[in-house]
Amino acid sequence: IAEVVEFLRIMAGPKSAFYQNANFKSSTSDYDTLVSLLEAFRDFVGAGLLEAVSPERRAQLDVVNDFMEQANDLLDTKDVHPAAAAMVIGATLEEFLRTRADREGLSLGSRKPGIQAYAELLRDQGVLDKQDMKDVTAWAGLRNHAAHGEWDQVRDHDRIRLMLEGVNLFLRKHGA
Predict the structure, then answer these.
(1) Three-state secondary-structure class, residue 78
(2) End-to-end CA distance of the chain
(3) Is the N or the C terminus of the chain less surrounded, counting Cβ atoms within 10 Å?
(4) Please, where are the H alpha helices in the chain?
């Protein structure tokens, strides 16, 4: 019973109806119902529904893409300081990490919300690896320089362009 419940938590997600029902049924030790849930999940996966993108998730992905395009446009605009693009990229990264943590059913607890806090939370769950953390830390630093008016740290268009490209790759790697 425990194996079925844990399998559904990991594979279907802690907020899924499959896991919620299995977790509830495990307290009553209803083995046949758990087997039925597992078979229903198998059919759900077989129908390709596990990978389907919900309308809510599609809207989130569209927003991320729009913001990244805006950052690109800012970088391409001659009279706009690259710090503006760094702010948009950083905000997009933070929103992506927050959404991913929410999707995983994770909570920051008493930690202050921010890029680094969300990244650490995801790293602790094995979602992000060591290299991801190095990249995220560097990007968070650039965003912070821009946010605090440290213009000399974010004046290089090429450096911010690398940030944009790196974050775009990161987002694709992790599901955006």
Answers:
(1) coil
(2) 34
(3) N
(4) 2-12, 17-26, 31-46, 55-76, 82-103, 115-124, 130-147, 157-173
Number of CB atoms found within 10 A of residue 32's CB = 8
Region 48-71 average pLDDT: 76
Q: What is the pTM of this model?
A: 0.69
Question: Which residue do the tokens 């706009």 mark?
Answer: 80
pLDDT single digits (tens) 123-161: 999 999 999 999 999 999 999 999 999 999 999 999 999
Tell me the residue ranges of DSSP E strands in the chain: none
Owner of token pair 């896991």: 19
Tokens standing for residue 109: 């607890």
